[in-house]
Amino acid sequence: MKPGYVKRFSRTERVLHWVNAAGFLILLASGLILYLPSLAADVGRRPEIKDIHFWGGIGWVCALVLVALLGDRRGLLRTARQMDGFDREDIYWLRRRRPAPQGRFNAGQKLNAALTAAFLVLFFVSGMLLWAGERDTRFRFASTVVLHDGLLYASLVLLVGHLYLAVLHPATRHSLRGMTLGTVREDWAEEHHPRWDT
Ligand code: HEM
Ligand code: HEM
Question: pTM for the whole thing?
Answer without folding.
Answer: 0.95
